[in-house]
């Protein structure tokens, strides 16, 4: 029978055998799959695993530094690359959701390729692909789709010519979490909500500016920290905030304001294919809305999304 302990023993032995003392590069996203894949490989080959964690400037507030610290604390050989301005420059003036995804995917490839070239004589590309990614032609986890559409024309970037190693490709998500726990990865990391590869870019409707990213990071942090404080985080499958491309009239003191509207979204789901909005307590929504409006300059109205998927998607773009 399958147990996490046996899986770890077997896989570590197989990886040692397959890789020997060659070098492996892996892109960390901060999510569960890439983190578990990294720790597993690290057990097998130690410092020959080179991890790269890219800040695309579209992560949650403080996420880049806190997750990087966490990875270092886990003993991983990880390089944090702050490429925020490269991504934000590439996105300037773009409003179309699919174009945003393409730009982000392409920029990620360029940044990752540059970094992979810095490692001398790397032989393998490791990925945190899991079984649902293998069977579904379209993965919800990352830029794989965009990579293919873009680079068929100009030829593959060098890192994509590496031999691929995917130690989790036979596992379902719950098995990945159990393997992660077996490897001693913290529950906080293993229980993290899914977060889309394009990050806040697809939660800022319309074009993206550094100021809009900053506003949304503040709003999102108040919402997510509130969910944790109220012990609601683990009851929600995914949550986040959307910055809407409309302004509405408000009043502050005896002045009228004309500022942004944000929408909060929290859903229950098992795989993201269908989802229901979560009936969060009114007292929580009230506290969260007050905090957002009082603390985040530029926002004067908060709404809560009560749409199910289908027909509404989880993200607004
Ligand atoms: P939707 O909005 O399609 O989202 O209901 C379903 C799940 O997929 C995530 N999502 C993405 N993840 N790149 C990703 O890595 C993307 O372009 C992307 N679009 C949506 C979304 O966060 C949800 O978990």
Question: What does the model show?
Answer:
This is GMP synthase [glutamine-hydrolyzing]. Homodimer. Keywords: ATP-binding, Glutamine amidotransferase, GMP biosynthesis, Ligase, Nucleotide-binding, Purine biosynthesis. This protein has 317 residues and is an alpha/beta fold. It has two domains: 4-190, Rossmann fold; 203-304, GMP Synthetase, Chain A, domain 3, CATH 3.30.300. The chain is built from eleven helices and nine strands. It has a five-stranded parallel beta sheet with strand order 3-2-1-4-5, with helices on both faces. Strands 6, 7, 8 and 9 form a four-stranded mixed beta sheet that branches. A hairpin with a 2-residue loop joins strand 6 (238-252) and strand 7. Helix 1 (4-19) crosses helix 8 (173-182). The protein starts with a helix and ends in a 13-residue tail after the last strand. The relative contact order is 0.13. Mean pLDDT is 94; it is low at 138-152. It binds xanthosine-5'-monophosphate (XMP). The site of xanthosine-5'-monophosphate has 14 residues, from loops.
């Amino acid at each position: 029978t399958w147990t996490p302990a046996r899986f770890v023993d077997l896989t570590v032995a197989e990886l040692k055998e397959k890789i020997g003392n060659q070098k492996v590069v892996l892109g960390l996203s901060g999510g569960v799959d890439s983190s578990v894949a990294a720790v597993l490989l690290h057990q097998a080959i130690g410092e020959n695993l080179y991890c790269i964690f890219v800040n695309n400037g579209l992560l949650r507030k403080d996420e880049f530094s806190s997750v990087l610290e966490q990875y270092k604390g886990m003993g991983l050989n990880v390089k944090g690359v702050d490429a925020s301005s490269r991504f934000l420059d590439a996105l300037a003036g773009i409003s179309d959701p699919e174009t945003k995804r393409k730009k982000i995917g392409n920029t990620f490839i360029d940044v990752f390729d540059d970094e992979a070239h810095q490692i001398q004589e790397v032989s393998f590309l490791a990925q945190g692909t899991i079984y649902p990614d293998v069977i579904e032609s379209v993965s919800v986890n990352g830029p794989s789709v965009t990579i293919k559409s873009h680079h068929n024309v100009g030829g593959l970037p060098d890192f994509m010519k590496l031999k691929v190693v995917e130690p989790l490709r036979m596992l379902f998500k719950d098995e990945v979490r159990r393997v992660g726990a077996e490897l001693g990865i913290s529950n906080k990391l293993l229980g993290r909500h899914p977060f889309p590869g394009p990050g806040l870019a697809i939660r800022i409707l319309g074009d993206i500016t550094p100021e809009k990213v900053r506003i949304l990071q503040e709003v999102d942090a108040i919402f997510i920290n509130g969910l944790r404080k109220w012990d609601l985080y683990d009851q929600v499958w995914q949550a986040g905030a959307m910055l809407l491309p409309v302004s509405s009239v408000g009043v502050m003191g005896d002045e009228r304001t004309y500022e942004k509207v944000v929408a909060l979204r929290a859903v229950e789901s098992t795989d993201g294919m269908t989802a229901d909005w979560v009936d969060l307590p009114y007292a929580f929504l009230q506290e969260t809305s007050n905090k957002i409006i009082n603390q985040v300059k530029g926002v004067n109205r908060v709404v809560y999304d009560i749409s199910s998927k289908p027909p509404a998607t989880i993200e607004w773009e």
